[in-house]
Design brief:
InterPro entries: Homeodomain-like_sf, HTH_TetR, Tet_transcr_reg_TetR-rel_C_sf. Keywords: DNA-binding, Transcription, Transcription regulation. The chain is mainly alpha-helical and 196 residues long. It has two domains: 67 residues, Tetracycline Repressor, domain 2; 113 residues, Tetracycline Repressor, domain 2, CATH 1.10.357.10. It is built from twelve helices and no strands. The N and C termini lie far apart (46 Å).
């Protein structure tokens, strides 16, 4: 088990949670490389030694931050999926949660932002990012298959692209209607694929 996986499955101490909350805000708003452990320690009110004791390294802290966001996102979608029985509505669930997710994420997708800063394929943070996007694609693919969609693998790529595009449109062009617009397009694609 990796250090970050161990941290993710352990209840954090109040100091560790404060470090993680501070790092999450700084990584998201300023960027990963622009923020050092000195800044994180100072702004969270702990020593660097405490940061290293709890997370091992800046990379360990970064991975924990990404894993925490991934868990929150997946939990939100899974909770909403449980509310739907209609196959098409289930496919559209990741679009339905965007209006409540986006207002707190005005700098775009934290995973895409981190991906741009982590060019090394074997970086543990990059692996979390790839796993999150792969999970979303596979979720679309599975739900489409369950709905009886023709060509579900291709439609899943289309839905993933619409979903990610909505986040970019919302944050960069400030299109506050992006989530609703892509949800309409996603529904059209899904219904076309599931109508025989």
């Amino acid at each position: 088990m990796s250090t970050s996986a161990h941290i993710a499955n352990t209840t954090l101490t109040p100091a560790a949670q404060r470090i993680l909350d501070t790092a999450a805000e700084l990584f998201y708003t300023r960027g990963i490389h622009a923020v050092g452990v000195d800044t994180i320690a100072a702004e969270s009110g702990v020593t660097k030694r405490t940061l290293y004791d709890r997370f091992g390294s800046k990379d360990g802290l970064l991975v924990t931050y990404l894993e925490q966001r991934d868990r929150r996102w997946r939990a939100l979608i899974e909770t909403r999926l449980a509310d739907h029985t209609d196959p098409v509505e289930r496919v559209l669930t990741p679009f339905d949660v965007l209006p409540e997710w986006l207002p707190d994420n005005t700098r775009g997708c934290s995973f895409i932002n981190a991906f741009a800063e982590l060019p090394e394929p074997d970086h543990p943070g990059r692996q979390v990012i790839v796993a999150e996007k792969t999970w979303l694609y596979e979720l679309f693919d599975r739900l489409l298959a369950e709905a009886g969609a023709a060509g579900h693998e291709t439609v899943a790529v289309q839905l993933l692209s619409l979903h990610e595009g909505a986040i970019i449109s919302y944050s960069i062009t400030e299109r506050r209607d992006a989530a609703a617009a892509v949800r309409t397009a996603a529904e059209q694609l899904t219904r076309a694929a599931t109508t025989r």
